[in-house]
């Protein structure tokens, strides 16, 4: 595959080393999913930022506060450069809580990383967690649909990104485009980076998740209304899960974390418990307007089916 990288391989390697060395978890020989006899002194929460303008610490400040209160433990936030670093941190037993995409979750789960999905963000308590991938081009582009991506420089997010790679790959194949030979793929490293690269002309076209294009980058002032044109939309993708390690923490701690996400980390509870002063100022990850709802492994079977269709290399990563 003729792929160019915005972020250096050295940065990814450094992130793997960082995650492998953090925390005081059980070692990597524990991979069968059995709860540990004891917990690490500090719980490590690893994720990649959804956009450069907002740090993980800012996004997850209220989440971390609740987890610390509910478990009685400190939580250390680790900012990874890509999903591969987060997955390897989980595999090595050095990460206890992880923010993953649906694709990176099944990549980890189906390669025997001992994890369980516990929650995903929603905008209302009765909403199903989900979002879409958008195929985007500059507003003045003559490309009108995904078939126009052929022979173009096309920005993706990451090889293990659901809305930034897996579903777009399926969309390209449906349009008769070979994602390895009919385009020049560019791995931008983030949804924001992909969208901004398209807007600046570094890529002729690209992919990013819906809210990044329609809300986040416009609110931050990095894009203006109408600067990008959406020419393709995916089917609904199940919401990105927060997953927990099942073999580096006691069952009691796992249960407390699950309850924190599904019962305490929502705007109603956060305001009631005094974590947030009011709903308007209550910051949650992915700019959720409400909070988290419970999810389970079966929710992601649709992503597995897309893997079967596309036969993406990352789907079979060990």
From TrEMBL:
Cross-referenced CDD domains: PBP2_PhnD_like
Record-linked Pfam families: Phosphonate-bd
NCBIfam families: 3A0109s03R
Gene3D superfamilies assigned: Periplasmic binding protein-like II
Name listed for the protein in its UniProt record: Phosphate/phosphite/phosphonate ABC transporter substrate-binding protein
Keyword Cytoplasm attached: no
InterPro entries according to UniProt: PhnD
A GO CC annotation given for this chain: ATP-binding cassette (ABC) transporter complex
Signal peptide positions on this chain: 1-26
Organism from which the protein derives: Epidermidibacterium keratini
One example of a Gene Ontology biological process annotation: transmembrane transport
Lineage top rank: taxon: Bacteria
UniProt similarity note: Belongs to the phosphate/phosphite/phosphonate binding protein family.
The entry's keywords: Signal
